[in-house]
Amino acid sequence: MATSEEKIKIASKFLKAAPPGEINDVFNDVRALVGDDELMDGGILAALEEYNTEELATVEVPGIEGKVIVSKHGHIEGDRFLDPKTNQTFKLDHLRQTASDLESHTIDEGVEELRKAIEIDTEAYVADRYAEGVSAVYGSKGVVTIAIVHNKYSPSNYWNGRWRSIWTLDVATNEVKGAMKCKVHYYEDGNVQLETAKELDDKLTKGTSEPNKVIAKALLDFIGSAESKYQHALNESYHDLAESTFNGLRRALPYTRTKLDWNKILTYRIGAELAAK
């Protein structure tokens, strides 16, 4: 029989692999398997914290309009996270994904003006590109970080999906690093998960001598181009998958080696129904 430590380790792996929008379902299933609520609640907080920060969980914070991203880039200390739009920190309950206890935060004046300019362009970009997208722009120690997440849940149609991207700009070197991730779960009469990622490393053509608005526009133009190319490449690859790979897996003919005459089958079915009446 597995020890308590082994049970928590297994439960944590399940939680960290939870599909988009299904963390509560996975938690309840794992809780039933572990069979010890006290052990479960006390042992999986680290896994939930990792899941929330890596998956860019969004929460509603009392006193702040709109949803706020939970990210390691906004982690202050303990269970406190930063909302850079309002420059306030909040306390997060990772288990229930609820936020409370707002406090003001001291900003990094060194990159604040550039961060604000990038934030304005980022919000416009996300509103145009992602219908239900949420963004956050952090600035600290000479680096501006953009976090974008777009969740699309459709449990009635048996699928959920999430798009995430993280972009960093080193103000001193103009170096841009990006990571784009897409995760989709489809579970009608089966269980299929897609998880794909791509990283980029480049430099902006606009330097620090340029006005902040010019740098912000150049950065978001770069991000928009990179995300469009990646999403277009994904669409093409799955189109090819459906047209070629899956076709190759299909049997060209049934075991009889002859094609089915669907008109005859329909005639037989109608005849059988008439005979039954």
From TrEMBL:
Pfam families named among the record's database cross-references: F-actin_cap_A (PF01267)
Gene3D superfamilies, per database record: F-actin capping protein, alpha subunit, F-actin capping protein, beta subunit
GO aspect biological process, one term: barbed-end actin filament capping
Alphabetic keyword roster: Actin capping, Actin-binding
Database matches in InterPro entries: CapZ_alpha, CapZ_alpha/beta, CapZ_alpha/beta_2, CapZ_alpha_1, F-actin_cap_asu_CS
One MF annotation (Gene Ontology) recorded for this entry: actin filament binding
One GO cellular component term noted in the UniProt record for this chain: cortical cytoskeleton
General function of this protein: F-actin-capping proteins bind in a Ca(2+)-independent manner to the fast growing ends of actin filaments (barbed end) thereby blocking the exchange of subunits at these ends. Unlike other capping proteins (such as gelsolin and severin), these proteins do not sever actin filaments.
Assembly mode: Heterodimer of an alpha and a beta subunit.
Family according to the record: Belongs to the F-actin-capping protein alpha subunit family.
UniProt protein name: F-actin-capping protein subunit alpha
Organism of this sequence: Linnemannia elongata AG-77
